[in-house]
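Lecture 7 notes: from sequence to structure.
We start with the chain below.
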Amino acid sequence: MCTNHSKLSSDNTDLQEVERQWDRREFFKKTSLGLGAMALGSLLNTTNAQGNRKSTPEELLTAFNTNKLGLPHHLPKAKRIVYLFQSGGPSQLDLFDYKPKLVDMYGQDLPDSVRAGQRLTGMSAGQTAFPIAASTLNFKQYGESRAWVSEAMPYLSEIVDDLCFVKSMHTDAINHDPAITFFQTGSQLPGRPSIGSWLSYGLGSDNENLPTFITLVSKNGSGQPLYSRLWGNGFLPTEHQGVQFRAGKDPVLYLSDPENYDGNDRRNMLNYLGKLNDVAYDTYGDPEINARMTQYEMAFRMQTSVPEVTDTSNEPDAIFEMYGEDSRNPGTYAANCLMARKLLEKDVKFVQLFHQGWDQHGNCPGGIKHQSKNTDQATAALIKDLKQRGMLEDTLVVWGGEFGRTVYSQGQLTATNYGRDHHPKAFTMFMAGAGIKPGFTYGETDDFSYNITKDPVHTHDFQATLLHLFGIDHERLVFKHQGRRFRLTDVHGHAVKDILS
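Predicted structure tokens for the same chain:
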């Protein structure tokens, strides 16, 4: 105790030296790629003292490969990502996976050879029959890629040549919470780090004034609950946790100064708090001490940066018209898509939107139309907006839910109405942008969209592919916790090279 006390009581010169060392340490820690970023900038400049010369891939990777984890492992295609998570399980049969043969089989029982004893949820396990429900929505082919899209998605149908549809997704979980948790963290059990936290841990930040990982949740959403652990850091240092931005006066909770406090002494307070935490770290060696201080500093900078980035008043009317009427209503899916673009422009590495309501156990045709009306235009607008700003080439866009829906009707089937239960064995997602083949469809399902017949893609394969696009070998991004080396993809998975450009 005496040693620590004397350290705090030293003259002002010693305190200034501590502060200088701390600032120097923080500078290198918070610069996403440290000196490598400056080296990369030099290499990317094709004009140099030796004349015009393009840097070799090896030189670029050497410049990149300077952070403490030796990342990235290879040259990345993606600089940032926006993940549009459609919570509830969108019906692939009513959106993208067109199955015309089902029309003539409407109402017939699903053959046992198709279901082959696959497990059911508790909601349809008691059914004595499993009547086939062909989609009542009309499908057409669009673009040069001739991709099938239903009438529920008129705006996305206009940009199919920018999209890569993966129709052979499959997952392990059949109920919402474990299925969403599995997609976001690589495990059905809570407690693991989310995808955004892994990227933050591995690659750091490209904007020191905003979090690396930001989450937006559509307001007034109904459906399965969403928990903050879906964007949590798990056992990674707390500085890598996703930060939720909300609609309203305070986009980030507890960021604004208390009433009647002018904040003028905030900087001095943080400086001295940093010195106290340096003493605590030297005494106990707990890395969470430094992580907490990093968060305090980020919160201080965000007091200026957040009001600026969340202000959409300067957006032209044409942008609001492109995203749709709801984009003027903060907190809606459309407004969050517009906000995502602004965050991506500020080089936030991982932006995640959660939109609830895709759980159509009943009234599937009406529910699909309602959900699509709320999301279709804004999703397409975000992709077009990124493209027109030259950002799509290094921004990865992902759209999808936690599983798909059954071909058979849950509950009563009529000529115009049906419900669909959860189906983890075959469903559709789409991707666009950085490193992804545009105008491409990968994978196939059987005539019932029930089983995969070609090129299956597991959840861990999707996660491995995402990391690959950021220059990361998923098997080498690990974190040791309680004696075990953990990774996002657990013990299997591979990057799907066939969908990469």
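Points to note: The chain has 13 helices and 19 strands. The CA atoms of residues 231 and 242 lie 5 Å apart.
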